[in-house]
Design goal:
The chain is mainly alpha-helical. 79% of the residues lie in helices and 0% in strands. The protein contains 15 helices and no strands. The chain is flat and about 85 Å long.
Length: 310
């Protein structure tokens, strides 16, 4: 792997994270006084002034920014204004639940979307192809909150097969994972089909057929690796959006993850928690995109050369 290629990607990653942190910091600080939401409406001016000084909100905005950035570089993301606990503790408590939900949804989408896309490409213009594309469109079209409520009404309230909310058993994971993974499965099916159709028309596929390679071997050994770049792209975006994409799903199913924590922190204007969670979401997205870029270079050396030359 070219060191210049790696260095360029790492620099862009660091620059993106810095811009995100700066933007979120400025927007949150200029959107209103958080003490209005955190303190009672009849609080004395002396109490308000005390907490404003305690939390450093009385300092000029550039000073607050420099202090926050210095603390972030030391691994200190501040103290929650509502719970008076370190932000890193609040976040790390919720990350395992979100990771479990997101990775389960991603695995489900991968096991469903990629095989359906391959079958649709191999059986082009058949009933299976049309059903697969209908499934892909359905996955994009149905919002998470609507699908989640529909599943609760069907499988919890009507059939009484699954618990409607919470966590603790594998049964609690089924509906949230299916809700979160449907859109990704549809995207994977659609992109896999399109990429496979392009690859199946390549001369080397006809050569493999002429040599007597079995259909399964042609698909798995020749077609699928060369059609992997669009699939890797969708997987990268899905992996990067595990936390952000789980916000609605976690709220609907009362799943105790990072997304639900972000909703409650925004409602309470808990600046430190919101900043820490947005930074975590941005870091997840950026790192996932960095991994995808590196995989591009491994899958197709031409992409790596073009990136370096650019």
């Amino acid at each position: 792997m070219n060191l210049r290629f790696l260095g360029m990607k790492a620099f862009r990653t660091a620059l993106t994270l810095w811009l995100v942190v700066t933007f979120v910091f400025v927007v949150l600080r200029t959107s209103g006084d958080p003490l209005v939401s955190l303190l009672p409406a009849d609080s004395e001016p002396e109490v308000i002034a005390y907490y404003r000084t305690l939390w450093g909100l009385d300092r000029p905005l550039p000073v607050q920014y420099l202090r926050y950035m210095a603390a972030v570089f030391q691994g200190d993301f501040g103290i929650s204004l509502r719970d008076t606990r370190p932000v890193i503790d609040l976040v790390t408590e919720r990350v395992p639940a979100t990771a479990l939900l997101g990775l389960t949804a991603l695995a489900l989408a991968l096991m469903v979307g990629v095989p359906l896309g391959i079958l649709a490409a191999v059986r082009r213009n058949t009933l299976l192809d049309r059903l697969t594309m209908a499934f892909a469109v359905l996955g994009f079209a149905i919002p998470n909150f609507f699908l989640g409520i529909l599943m609760i009404l069907t499988f919890s309230l009507t059939l009484r097969w699954l618990p409607s909310s919470g966590t603790g058993t594998p049964w609690h994971l089924i509906m949230p994972a299916c809700t979160l993974g449907l859109a990704t499965a549809g995207a994977l099916a659609r992109f896999t089909r399109s990429s496979m159709l392009e690859v199946l028309r390549r001369p080397y596929m006809r050569t493999a057929q002429a040599k007597g390679v079995a259909p399964g071997g042609r698909i798995l050994r020749h077609a699928l690796p060369n059609a992997a770049i669009p699939v890797v792209t969708v997987l990268g975006f899905s992996l990067g959006g595990l936390i952000g994409g789980a916000i609605v799903t976690e709220t609907v199913f009362a799943w105790p993850g990072v997304g639900r924590l972000l909703v409650s922190a925004v409602a309470a204007r808990d600046l430190a928690v919101v900043q820490g969670l947005v930074l975590l979401i941005a870091a997840t997205m950026v790192i996932a995109n960095l991994v995808v870029d590196l995989l591009y270079g491994l899958l197709d050396p031409r992409i790596r050369v073009a990136s370096v030359d650019a």
